[in-house]
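User: Assemble these into one structure.

Assistant: Restating your components, then the assembled model:
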Amino acid sequence: MKSGKLIVLTGPSGVGKGTLVRSLLTRHPELHLSVSVTTRSPREGEIEGQHYYFVDRSRFEQMLEAEELAEWAEFAGNLYGTPYFALQQGIEEGEFILLEIELEGARQIRNKFPEAVRIFILPPSWEELERRLRSRGLDSESAIARRLLRAKAEIEAAGEFDFQVINDDLEVALTGLESVLFVNC
Ligand code: ADP
Ligand code: 5GP
């Protein structure tokens, strides 16, 4: 049977992970996106079961206790985790599954699924990362400050990853990702 793959995309908040993932899914409908569970409130336009499964803290803790999460982390005051159910089955069925998660979760995935391909998305500059976080217009100033603080530590860990892709020009970054996904793995 054809075996699938886990592809982990990590990078600081605002670097463009969501934008890249949406473009990849449009261009390659055969790719699957793992939908995470989070205690964060939905942003405008976010849809339950498509962007996230939105749960409260006690439900998240129940899932943790029942070992239903392949990885999890706290990020900017909220909990995020990847449910196991779609992963295991998807890999066995030969699917390419994208996980768009932060650094701590990516490290847990490396331990549990050593064969996962891990890609770090870098911004072209610190100034541009800050500009993108603000231009998104979805987070409060305090949330942006928390995300920037975390971004520094995350970027320092980029060297731990199998591949680094700079998201300067979107098309160039997409081509870089496609070459990792479809040529190198
Ligand atoms: P993340 O998912 O990593 O938090 P987003 O995908 O939400 O980041 O992108 C953050 C902001 O940056 C959005 O406003 C998005 O349109 C913009 N953006 C993403 N990629 C690029 C790019 N290559 N050039 C310019 N702006 C970008
Ligand atoms: P956001 O609140 O902007 O949607 O996500 C904040 C951060 O949490 C992003 O870096 C995103 O990649 C990460 N994230 C989303 N889902 C998960 C998950 O299931 N696990 C982990 N560890 N991080 C996640």
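The radius of gyration is 16 Å.
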